[in-house]
Amino acid sequence: MASSSSTHAVDIAQAMITAPSPLGEWLVILPVALCIIVGAVLMLVRKHTFWHPVIAIPALVLLVVIDAMLLYAVCTTGPITMVAGRWLPPFGIAFSADIMSALFALAASIVGLAGAIFAVDDVNRSGRRYGFYPFLMLLLAGVSGAVLTGDIFNLYVWFEVLLISSFGLLILGSTHEQLDGAMKYAVLNLIGTTLFLIAVAYLYAVFGTLNMADVAMRARDDATLPTATIAALFVLAFGMKAAAFPVNFWLPASYHTPRTVVSALFGGLLTKVGIYALLRVMVMILPGDLANLGMLIGISAFLTILLAGMGAIAQHDMRRAVGYIVIVGIGNMLAGVAIGSVEGLEGAVFYALHSIILMTALYFVTGLAGKLAGGFSIGAIAGLYRRAPAFSGLSLALFFAAAGLPPFSGFWPKAILVKSALADGSWWLAAAILIGGFFSTFALGRVFLLAYWRPAPLGGGGPVIRLSTLEWLPLIGLSALVIIFGLYPEPLLAVVSRAVEGILSPEGYFMSVFPGGGL
Amino acid sequence: MESVLAVLVGIFFAAAIYLMLSRHSIRIMLGIAILGNAVNLLIFTAGRITGLTPPIIEEGADTLGAGTANPLPQALILTAIVISFSFLAFLLVLTYRAYQDLNTDDTDDMRSAEPKDQPMPPTGY
């Protein structure tokens, strides 16, 4: 038997609460429940493709509202926990939300809503019939579940939920490119989650429990426990999810193959879930091992930034270049985790939130540019600026944000990261972040120069094309967020710093899971 | 008992990694299937092999008696089996489709998404 249940005397009377759950606790599971239920309803009306967006978009608006309420609730009252069947941990399986979970869930729901609106025009009838909207709802269920769960085995299960829906989305359309990209994506991500499961098995062998709060408390109580192997496995598994060097080659091989909206959701959401899990597990649950592995994560971050930056410069396909820009961002977040100071983690969380919104918008822009120009090769596109000036202006703003230039949202987390790296003495990480920013500016600047600015060849260029409202709306909404958080970063920064405080000293989280102070 | 299972898990992992290093996608799939089972056995061993008494709470008692088997790893493995089974089913279909459409099961030749002879990006205006 695993060590826990035999050594701790369990008070059976305290194990189950019979009073009904307070209304506030339902907020924790509502995002997941809503997504799964709506996904099931969409499957029922599979053949009536007209109704898919009509059902999915209001549901996602509701999801944004629920996640915003959840964020408000955890900011005012502290972390919330709901347990299965009212059995208290360690018996019941917990869903716990603290500020960091709520922030990621809110960002994910905003991106999901933008994607659902964009998809009305982007996904054709057969794409809907093959289940774009149900897969989208299940993807969001997976992401919400992964950020809100309080049990590490359930984290694995939610990873698999979002993985299987991402396979479905990736393969939508079944072109040769997609099959090829999906093979690499599917196999490597499945191996990544299997590594995660191996780490979970070892974690259970050492701690005898899988509740995150329980494990975190035991790891803090006894620093002699053999957790180094587990931590290394977690870093490898989540690094693979997040596309960190050297396990990132599946991303540029697959992210440019699906439809625009699918690439956008993937670029925005999936890698950031890996970063979320890394923060949760390495900072909150196994804080002792983060110090030991900091150097390793730092080297990985260093190489991720530089190699992905060079990769972005070497691309002649706009979508592939954006794929490498996503990886540069991952390197920046990893650098924050590697530094491990309060400031470094704040930079990483801020960067992740910014990146969720921005990368989605950037893929939207890329997809629309390809649609306007009839191809994605930056050598062949020319004269976009002449034909769509407003769209080009918006693209330039997003390019600036991705490169980390002020006054857009990319600037602040990068400034925080560079400052914390210098304060920590990791000048090489600061240098990598700055050089990565230069590479991104160079790569995106060249895209703007050649694809947008360069005049179209004589007689070419084609007519002026108008984009539909449903394509403009999500793009403008996400860009507005990028600009607002660039100009007024203080409110978000304040919430982010409370979120980091919450994972660095998670007493509030423990109290919400074990109201009696633990067994 | 644990040491026997540990050796078995090691053999499973070795076989899985050997197969996954192959260039042929069907052998990679077989490797993944074995890998899933290796992890399941690992979870089983991680829960300690304690006894052969089934984990049923006796009448009048509130907790399991001494020497009963640990039910939790079995629940975890059941979940993991269901998940890995469905993934394997998906991957086999994907492999078959990829073989049909791309006319190869050699991963070195699967380069539709990343063509070998990409032109260099433009260097001038």
Automatic annotation (TrEMBL), chain A:
<feature type="transmembrane region" description="Helical">
    <location>
        <begin position="263"/>
        <end position="287"/>
    </location>
</feature>
<feature type="transmembrane region" description="Helical">
    <location>
        <begin position="155"/>
        <end position="173"/>
    </location>
</feature>
<feature type="domain" description="NADH:quinone oxidoreductase/Mrp antiporter transmembrane">
    <location>
        <begin position="151"/>
        <end position="439"/>
    </location>
</feature>
<feature type="transmembrane region" description="Helical">
    <location>
        <begin position="227"/>
        <end position="251"/>
    </location>
</feature>
<feature type="transmembrane region" description="Helical">
    <location>
        <begin position="130"/>
        <end position="149"/>
    </location>
</feature>
<keyword id="KW-1133">Transmembrane helix</keyword>
<feature type="transmembrane region" description="Helical">
    <location>
        <begin position="26"/>
        <end position="45"/>
    </location>
</feature>
<dbReference type="InterPro" id="IPR001750">
    <property type="entry name" value="ND/Mrp_TM"/>
</dbReference>
<dbReference type="InterPro" id="IPR050586">
    <property type="entry name" value="CPA3_Na-H_Antiporter_D"/>
</dbReference>
<dbReference type="GO" id="GO:0042773">
    <property type="term" value="P:ATP synthesis coupled electron transport"/>
</dbReference>
<keyword id="KW-0472">Membrane</keyword>
<feature type="transmembrane region" description="Helical">
    <location>
        <begin position="93"/>
        <end position="118"/>
    </location>
</feature>
<feature type="transmembrane region" description="Helical">
    <location>
        <begin position="348"/>
        <end position="369"/>
    </location>
</feature>
<feature type="transmembrane region" description="Helical">
    <location>
        <begin position="428"/>
        <end position="452"/>
    </location>
</feature>
<feature type="transmembrane region" description="Helical">
    <location>
        <begin position="185"/>
        <end position="207"/>
    </location>
</feature>
<keyword id="KW-1003">Cell membrane</keyword>
<feature type="transmembrane region" description="Helical">
    <location>
        <begin position="390"/>
        <end position="408"/>
    </location>
</feature>
<dbReference type="Pfam" id="PF00361">
    <property type="entry name" value="Proton_antipo_M"/>
</dbReference>
<feature type="transmembrane region" description="Helical">
    <location>
        <begin position="54"/>
        <end position="73"/>
    </location>
</feature>
<feature type="transmembrane region" description="Helical">
    <location>
        <begin position="293"/>
        <end position="314"/>
    </location>
</feature>
<protein>
    <submittedName>
        <fullName>Cation:proton antiporter</fullName>
    </submittedName>
</protein>
<dbReference type="GO" id="GO:0005886">
    <property type="term" value="C:plasma membrane"/>
</dbReference>
UniProtKB/TrEMBL annotation, chain B:
<keyword id="KW-0472">Membrane</keyword>
<feature type="region of interest" description="Disordered">
    <location>
        <begin position="104"/>
        <end position="125"/>
    </location>
</feature>
<keyword id="KW-1003">Cell membrane</keyword>
<dbReference type="InterPro" id="IPR039428">
    <property type="entry name" value="NUOK/Mnh_C1-like"/>
</dbReference>
<comment type="similarity">
    <text>Belongs to the CPA3 antiporters (TC 2.A.63) subunit C family.</text>
</comment>
<keyword id="KW-0812">Transmembrane</keyword>
<feature type="transmembrane region" description="Helical">
    <location>
        <begin position="6"/>
        <end position="21"/>
    </location>
</feature>
<keyword id="KW-1133">Transmembrane helix</keyword>
<dbReference type="InterPro" id="IPR050601">
    <property type="entry name" value="CPA3_antiporter_subunitC"/>
</dbReference>
<dbReference type="GO" id="GO:0005886">
    <property type="term" value="C:plasma membrane"/>
</dbReference>
<dbReference type="Pfam" id="PF00420">
    <property type="entry name" value="Oxidored_q2"/>
</dbReference>
<feature type="transmembrane region" description="Helical">
    <location>
        <begin position="72"/>
        <end position="94"/>
    </location>
</feature>
<protein>
    <submittedName>
        <fullName>Monovalent cation/H+ antiporter subunit C</fullName>
    </submittedName>
</protein>
<feature type="transmembrane region" description="Helical">
    <location>
        <begin position="28"/>
        <end position="52"/>
    </location>
</feature>
